[in-house]
Amino acid sequence: MVALCVAGTALLLASAPATAAGLHVEVTGTSTRPKVGDRWTLTVTAHGAKKGKVRVDVLMGGKVVQTVANGEPLRGGRWSITQKWPGIAKGRTMTFRGTVTSGKKRGSGQLTVKVRG
Q: Where does the signal peptide begin and end (predicted)?
């Protein structure tokens, strides 16, 4: 968290990926410009936790349109899924938001991709 003072008003700015109680979460993919029909792997990595629960939401236009994982186990600090991109995804921009909870620690990160034809 960074404090910024503008015209006498203090603003707080958060940086991504988020860190909460020492839990840094990173969301990565095989590519940020995957092609329809290609295999693509999404990985959520929690730095500071070996076990926990993972939730991955897919956002379009800032709204959750699908949940890919909800309470899936984090093993060895990682969780991943591999899929093939369907034709309906062509030209769409999606953000994958991964959240990890491990005991009282929680953190999240995100990855934005645009699918090409």
A: 1-20
Tokens 């995957």 — which residue?
Answer: 34
Q: What is the CATH number of the domain that holds 107?
A: 2.60.40.1930
Considering Cα of 60, then 20, then 48, then 75, what sign does the dihedral take?
negative
Separation between Cα atoms, residue 4 and residue 115, nearest integer Å: 36
Is residue 62 domain-resident? yes
- The average confidence (pLDDT) of the chain is 85
Alpha helices by DSSP H, the chain? none
- Confidence band for 117, pLDDT divided at 50, 70 and 90: confident
This prediction's pTM: 0.80
Q: How far apart are CA 37 and CA 64, in angstroms?
A: 23
